[in-house]
Target: Glycosyltransferase family 4 protein
Amino acid sequence: IITHHFLIEKSPVRILKNGRAFRQLKKLLQKERFDLIHCHNPMGGVLGRLAAGCYSPASILLYTAHGFHFYKKAPWKNWLLYYPVERALAHLTDILITINREDYERGSRFRLRRGGSVWKIPGVGLDVNRFFSEEEKEKRKARLGFPVDSFFILSVGELNQNKNHRTVIRALSQMEETDICYGICGRGESRKELEKLIEKEGLADRVKLLGYRKDIEEILPAADCFLFPSRREGFGMAAVEAMAAGLPLITSDCRGTREYMRNGMTGIVCRKNRPESYIQAIRQLKNDPEIRRRMGRTSRKRARSFSADATTDVMRQIYRTAAEKYENVNQE
Model:
């Protein structure tokens, strides 16, 4: 496999660096011939589709939207900036791939190039057996530095405002129970802010920032439940990994979690920015081991719908469609 490394910044305001990446793409497309070009993520999708539309018009362009930045109840700035761009770039897109129902329905209203099609895939592919273990939770808790008899809640996600860990920390600070521990795996710009909040609320012995981890499959089985409080998610693969580990979920209500979350069956849905909603959910799961077991079994069963095999089956259909489209376009 031949690779070409271009640095594409996530932020649309990083004009100089993204301009350099565009010029690199231009040179590559002028030098090489590609039948299919598949773009991912907002800025990769913008630069890739613009470059391919200008310098490789015969190529079939696929774009996977890992969660549009415009969605129901999104800030008006998101709609003002991102919606017109995606709508315009749809005219350069032959196949649009989405990962949740809301994005699929919105994308289906775009006018794609050459009578293009919109697809929805079941996540990005999960090894459902990787995250399940029969080893005792107590041993795993001890290795993480938590009391073996504690009720251990786990979150996995970047430390930023969107992931909303702050609301959960505030919820824990309002609870009288002192045997509840909370571990957050991830790194990001909000780490110092969260550390200060944890210290301020007197939770340093019960709430730990575990950093970026490559052993999530070893940590998930230590948890009694998985908490996913994001304000916005295109899908949220971390939560599906927790389901594969047989954990009940506590999640916010957003378009991504609606793909797999079933309130009262796989876990409990909370109001995004309401600590009291999380307090109620945590207490319910903590005080009822049988509900945890039942929800955990249902979660594990439902996680199979998002397996790598399920995603691969759909992607094969998509690439077959793209290949057929390429043949038809280049025969004209």
